[in-house]
Fold these 2 entries.
Entry 1:
Amino acid sequence: MSSIQSNSSANETFVRPATFFLSGLSNVPHVKYYYLFLSLVYVVTVLGNSFLMCTIYLARKLHTAKYIVVFHLAFSDLCESTAVIPKTIDTFLFEHQDISYEACLANMFFIYHFLNMQSLTLLVMAYDRLVAICFPLRYHAIVTKPAMFLIIGVMWIFSVTHFSVFIGLLNRLSFCRSTIIDSYFCDYSLLNKLACNDNSINILMIKINFGLLLCTPLMLIFVSYFCISLALFKIAHGADRIKAIKTCTSHLMLVVVGYTPLISNQIAVLTTPMHANTRLINNSLTQVIPPMLNPIIYTLKTDEVMQSIKELILRHMLVKITGSFWERLK
């Protein structure tokens, strides 16, 4: 009888709020200028990534395993930015700061999932460069289009499953302390702090996430480039070595742009006292700037892409000239 009463009392104290309140950017001075900046970032992100994806789709010479991965990175960048920026602007500029419990978890899932897709895609690109430089004669046998589709498919299955479990664990928490989230999106760690029952499993999952999804891909990228550097020293001709290095520069720049803000932000949070507004601005910039810069870097630093763009423009101009010529003949 006593066990039944204790169970019923536990059920009565379990709180799952209908809505949360996002308070993150409300107190930032002159924040409307920041929303304008985010809008410009989003426009550039959409145009840049869409342009890169269209170029890869239209240029037959780019229909290779390598550019399947580049296309996927552009797609992930576009989706991640879309998950963050429009919702942030709508929430704070138009004062729609109340978000339902289900919408909060969905928003969290898409942001984390596409951030993870960016990280894993950079790792796959490092694998592509590793095979190309260390095993050049076997590259086309190892890095095939079916193999890349399979790798990307496994990445999606892993990420969707992992974050479904990761975010699903929030359903076991009782949010009886507060429903105010001091962030611009539904931040998992902040939601976890609002819980008033045992959240040790959730804290463990946060640590696993940090190690598995941020540190592990970065370490594997470092290992791959260590192997690449050893292979480069074995190349006899300096011109061949420079050519091999040039094929890696765009990817290295993407890695620097993608990981440096994340790591710097983590170190800053752990080592220095930081104002809440500064933390929020840093976090948001970490999420939205790399997706904007990635297509610009890859387009400008990759000769194949630039050449394909020139060919597509030339082909379009020839079609227009030929069309106008036939119109005059008629």
Note: The longest helix spans residues 101-134.
Entry 2:
Amino acid sequence: MAGNTVVLFDFDRTIIDGDSDNRVITEMGLTGLFNKLRFNLPWNSLMDRMLEELHSQGKTVEDITECLKGTPLDQHIIAAIKAAHALGCELRIISDANLFYIETILEHQGVLGCFSRIDTNPSFVDEEGRLRILPFHDLSSTPHGCKLCPPNMCKGLVIDQIQASVSDSGVKRIIYLGDGNGDYCPTLKLGENDFVMPRKKYPLWKHIHGNPKLIKAQVHEWSTGEELERILLHLIDTNPIQDKIISGNASQSN
């Protein structure tokens, strides 16, 4: 079933255990300014402001890169990514982090090449050598209109695009891994042959357990990198349609 599977990963608190934005804030001495501005700016704009502060202090893109390279990544998750890719799954990332942080961390860990696409807030280095972060959705144009997602990114719209593209390519199912509030909207769009892997006791897990009838996909929770690896590789090898037939026959015989 691997060749018929797209595995979609969130990044912060899913691929990495912590938060990439918070790592840069903490490790590069921005906590004071962050706490001062955190309730005055949207998160995306706040992160861009943090990078402006680093630039004003003389910190370079290379300094930020070295900070990000120190981000720990569970070896079980690295193994899961490599195994899923080797089995023939298409791997993508949908994240409200930013492209520079994600690519830097994954490249350092040797798994960037496993992912065919990364949908996240774009980033670039301007003519002054300052790293900039932009919103995924252009905030100056028509709002995306989703009440579940932040203004800068609706992951549900990304899922719509992915579902349209994979249906044309013959892909039968999606496995979605995430943890946060922003992962709930795309989870609602998954079908009965799909799987969602929420991180246990994180916001996505709480949303799902708050009203499980809204979720069509099969739910498999995880807590640690070891559990993520074990469950993901099991699901890749699972035929959800056949499982439903077996489960239905078992229910009828009881």
Note: Residues 43-56 form the longest helix (14 residues).
